[in-house]
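The authors assume throughout that readers already know how a fold can be written as discrete tokens. What matters is that the chain and its backbone geometry are given together, residue for residue. A single example would do more here than another paragraph of explanation. For illustration, here is how one protein appears when written out as sequence plus structure tokens.
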Amino acid sequence: MKLTKTLSLFTGAALLLCSSVALANRFADVQVSATPLKDNVYMLTGAGGNMAAVAAPQGVLLIDSQYAELAEKIRASLKTLSPAELTTLINTHMHGDHVGGNAALAAQADIIAHANVKTRLAGNANFDPAGLPKTTITEKTTINHFGVELVLEPMPASHTDGDLLIWFPAQNIVHMGDLMFQGRFPFVDTNNGGNVQQYIENTRYVISKIDERTQVIPGHGELTNKAGLQQELAMMEQTLALVTAAKQQGVSEAELIAKGLGDEFKAWHWNFITEERWIKTLYQAVP
């Protein structure tokens, strides 16, 4: 009995160690890359949500922080842009692939987010409190980072109930956070205040505010523009119309999933929001 218990404890410890090593190594091959946009504004990619940075000689501002395991790679990438310290971190919303590196990167910086983001993160026992937002907003707020103006605009609940758009008016850039999944079905997090129809309305709103030269940083996917956002909107409008018509005709969710949305929407399917999951999201959104 004692031997069995000892073996059980050893096995459990070994599994925990393997799990820890796997977590530590899951981003071993990830490279954090920076793409220059305009006036010391960059888009950064790695794993998780796309980031952006304003790399001024006096201090660096970062939008979103991806995962804690990537903190050193993110920090090293920022140092290639400016030798200055990170002074400000803005979170576009509360999901882990956008806030996971908060504490590791910005415990000494001002962390800014929608007030609902702080509320939700503070209620998460697994979130390091050193990464909680220090400045929260609920209305449109303008900040100036060493000559670069940013407008932080809280949006009606759509992806979550704590979404921010980040505008760079002079540079004609907008960081949309997860209010855009470029070329993919979007994630509408209804468990955290998300709403399909408002997601569509927010997309229409952004389109009305930008022009053909605007650089659009999506939460996930490639740097895009107004045309890319219009394609995203058309996909959402068309698939919602298909699901609405089917549900009104008495087609069940299971039947609709079996039938699918059609070949024209296959390319939007991806590993997180599959066609099946997008159909379920739309079906549940239709009254």
